[in-house]
Amino acid sequence: MKKSFYYSVTLVALVVGLMLAVQFRTNRFIEQGVPSDRAQELTTELRQSDKDIEKLENEVNDLDYKLAQARKGQGQAADAIKSELEKARFYAGFVAVKGPGVEVVLITPPGNEGVDSLSSIQDVDILRLVNELRAAGAEAMSVNGQRIIATSEIRLAGKFINVNLTRLSPPYRVLALGDQERLQSALEIPDGLVETLRSLGIIIEIKPRESLVIPAYTGRPNINYARTL
Q: Using CA atoms, how far apart are residues 86 and 45, in angstroms rounded to an integer?
């Protein structure tokens, strides 16, 4: 009986002792909390993290600005290239143009349509007319709807005259944009081209026009050997 009592008392005492020990250690841990040096270390790390975040945000903003500027510059460069391309197409004759100028019509007299006839219009006559107009400042020209560009050919092919490999038939209607008075004066100078052709019997009409439309060149120049330097 006594032994059982002692065992019970000992067991209760052991349990109470363990509970008191756990409670004591818990209270000490709560009282001590986080060490002061560790708290300062964590505070320093937190401040450094805030600085790093701020620095990264500034870098992101800077990169966004640079990206926006790059896109803006790319757009401006594209616009500049497009503008230069349009100018090149304009000067090369690949776009239709309009403006004041003169209309020159060459007509072969009835009964003189043969190629060997003195009064028939030859390819060289149209070529000389185009050159005269170009020398007088013509900015764009066409012959029966065929745009004259740097590589255009005007040559006799059988009974017809070919311009840009297109067969044309009289009458030949030459349009030229430019200063009307200057163009007309260049053609009508004494002993000039027009006077010479008229003396051969060819009928030539020169009409100043306030608005002419010169079509675009529709062919494709063949460049097989020439290369840029």
A: 61
* Res 148: pLDDT: 95
Q: Are 101 and 95 in contact (CB under 8 A)?
A: no
> Tell me: domain 95-214, CATH 2.40.40.20, correct?
no
DSSP 47: H
pLDDT tens-digit map of 179-190: 999 999 999 999
Over 90: is that where the pLDDT of 215 sits?
yes
Please give the radius of gyration of the chain, using alpha carbons only, rounded to the nearest integer: 48
Residue spans per domain, the chain = 33-92, 95-214
Question: How far from chain centre, in Å, is Cα 167?
Answer: 35
Strand partners, 209: 101
Q: Residues 126-155: what's their mean pLDDT?
A: 94
pLDDT at res. 16:
56
User: Can you give 119-130 as a three-state secondary structure string?
Assistant: CCCCHHHHHHHH
Residue 144 token pair:
């029966």
